[in-house]
Write the structure tokens for this entry.
Amino acid sequence: MNQHWLYRPASIRLLWIVFLIILALTMLAGFFMDVHAAFGLEDSFAFAAWYGFASCIGMVVIAKLVGRLLHRKDSYYERD
Amino acid sequence: MNGISVVPPGLLLILGALLLPVAGVRLRGLLVLGLPLLVLALVWQIPDGSSLQLRFIGYELSPISGDRLSRLFGTVFAITAFAGGLFALNRARVVELVAAMICAGSAIGITFAGDLVTLLVFWESLALASTLLVWSAMTEQSRAAGMRYLIIHLLGGALLLTGIIGHVAAVDSIAFTSMSLDSPAHWLMLAGFLMNAAAPPLSAWLPDAYPEASPSGMVLLSAFTTKAAVYVLLRGFPGAEILIFLGLYMIFYGIVYALLENDMRRILAYSIVNQVGFMLCGIGIGTEMSLNGAAAHAFAHIIYKALLLMSAGSVLYMTGKRKCTDLGGLFQSMPLTTICGIIGALSISSFPLTSGFISKSMISQAAADQHLAIVWFLLMAGSAGVFLHAGIKFPWFVFFQKDAGLTPTDPPLNMRLAMILFAFLCIALGIWPAPLYAILPYPVDYVPYTYTHVVSMLQLLLFSGLAFFIMLPYLKRTLTITLDWDWFYRWPVPRALQQVTKTLDRWHTHRRIDFLRHAGHFFGTLFLYHGPRGILARTWATGSMVLWVVILLGIYLVAYYI
């Protein structure tokens, strides 16, 4: 089958590299920011980067826990 | 003021909708596209203050009452009615178009209602029309979901009505002004409003009902009900602190449930709840900046959410599939739908140069200005989560992911045009926010494009993206749903009712035998005397009648003289 460029392992690796470079650039750009710290935490280095990353991991973990408790088959309400 | 020259725009749309069933195909198209544009023009003719007064059972109705806030919402409702109508035009049943236009008309009616009676009338017609819009998919699922939707909204309407009665009894005025939560009546009104905003605990009606509507039906549904609720909250309860907490709950509820969801349009439905959560926060904070932010975010949200749902609707329309587990790889054959979906996804995530960036950030800025540290941190986490559940998850699972082997084309021309129009608006508002800022309720003193804001937003979003791809193995879609509060009225309550009916039935079977015996005896006696051969039903000879009359008269004569 003629696989699309985007699905080839080589291109996926290339995309990852580009993505990581962009991430590094946004962190670098953070050096030139002029943050007015209102709460104390948000002037830490690359605050938005680590905070966004950590809160996303946290939300996925919470979602998994909720899912463990509340997941049902998608035909749940249709039985009977 | 000039009572005659101002036409009620909402009413015009509703009356126009009633013409659709009798109009031919061409005229129908003209009405569906032309009326919203006419209404848009009318919205901007409405001056500040009340332009029409009517006396009704001793109260002064002002059905057309304008200000900056009502014109803002009227504008976006009219634009969405136009684009939604365009998207629906090629395939929607007439009943769906009628329902959609009544929805739009009711929502616009709400935004210009200067008194609570007018508000309530349009509120209820919005509930009925949106139920009809759910039903117009004409499937068994949509019938059941529409019924659940209707029950919840009638309950909300009843709460609102009770609250209004209490309010009017207390202040003897039906004017719709901002209120404080100082009486049970106001709490009831707030509860009625919140019901339509999909606030907890009853948020489940939204992801339950909307995804059962047709591809175009959900586009239209997403715009009116919840945002009409946001409008009345902005007008009725600005600064009500409880809205901050409800809003924060909705933000994270939307994210968590959307992360667990498999149905693409239910993902987007949960993200409506999430976005309305941001707006409620803004209303709850209650400063000019935050109220502006909530209003601007509602405006931007209606457009990008409609765009997202148009792109999901196009996928559903072209493939007939709605589950992430069945989809993937569609970017190859549906490039336009993919691009429009991604623009919508970036906008909802507040990516720089999109409409979400210039609206949502006003709310978090207001939280920072008010030194609400925890609220600000949670809003930031929420923004990251939006990118996670809607900004990446939706386009990734629908358009990329694995190649599901589907090769549908982009949808028909009218659908493509509607998507292009809204994608254009998302970007245009993001690049050039001045026109939107100029029509917000309060003067805007906010510059979205500062170096710090752009860079920190990029950091936040791109690292959320990194988290998504790292956590991807944990986000694999399964054929599941997630239980919600609606479980209580969909599972134990119906079951309990069934049990009651069964018990009654058993009792009845016992009693029935007795009953039938008694009844049989009764009817037998009745039949004996009144049946065809019964003595009292027989045809009597005239002679015997005369004889009996003579006898009776004789007795009477004798009795008279005694």
